[in-house]
Design brief:
The structure is a single chain. This protein is of the alpha/beta class and 205 residues long. It has six helices and seven strands; from the N terminus they run H-H-E-H-E-E-H-E-H-E-H-E-E.
């Protein structure tokens, strides 16, 4: 029986920088982040499970919709939820739920999350600023399943000094409320950074 495609193979096929090979048009420089090797290790046991999956940041002019296509090919029973400030709602179908919103706006995030199931995996590939990352984490982390994993990508362009404190569960910031900070610190099972500290992985108790 033929081996199944790995997540890296799928993302390379779709043309996304999450895989092991990606170049901009008219360039031969590989600028892929290779996040998929880490994701594959963590996510493989759930590939054929019924899971709810949320990704922040879907649109790119270089690979429009590639991430959605890749995740829904990799997971056989996924219910995919996505949010972006760019309108990608035309990609919605029975298993794909897309919303248009600003991830730095708590009221919009709260409206989005109302009535949604808890998620097995959440990936923040959105605006890549500390403010956006922390606003999203504060609102969405409570909606992660126990044992679920929250990923934050592309941290090479972000000041990480506060985010590093997640590792020792002494996270602090003035961007979100003290109640949200307390919830995050009390509900982290473990946290680590990988891929040259470009990817943060937070596992929930």
């Amino acid at each position: 029986m033929k081996n199944r495609e790995s997540l890296t193979e799928i993302f390379n096929e779709m043309g996304s920088d999450k895989g092991s090979y990606f170049t901009h048009k008219n360039s031969t420089t590989n600028i892929a982040h290779n996040y998929t090797s880490t994701y594959d290790e963590i996510m493989t046991p759930f590939r054929d499970e019924n899971i709810n999956f949320l990704e922040i940041g879907l649109w790119s002019p270089y690979y429009p919709g590639a991430s959605i296509k890749a995740w829904t090919k990799y997971f056989t029973k996924v219910k995919f939820y996505g949010i972006d400030i760019v309108d990608c709602r035309h990609l919605t179908n029975d298993n794909i739920n897309i919303s248009m919103l600003d991830q730095s706006n708590e009221s919009e995030l709260n409206e989005f999350i109302e009535g949604k199931p808890k998620f097995k995996f959440i990936i923040d590939d959105g605006g890549h600023t500390e403010h956006m990352i922390i606003k999203s984490l504060g609102t969405l982390f409570p909606h992660l399943e126990s044992g679920g994993v929250y990923f934050i990508e592309d941290l090479h362009v972000v000041d990480k000094k506060n985010l590093y404190k997640l590792i020792n569960k002494n996270f602090e910031t003035n961007i979100i409320s003290l109640d949200k900070i307390k919830y995050i610190n009390e509900n982290i099972s473990s946290c680590y950074f990988t891929n040259n500290d470009k990817l943060c992985i937070i596992i929930k108790k």
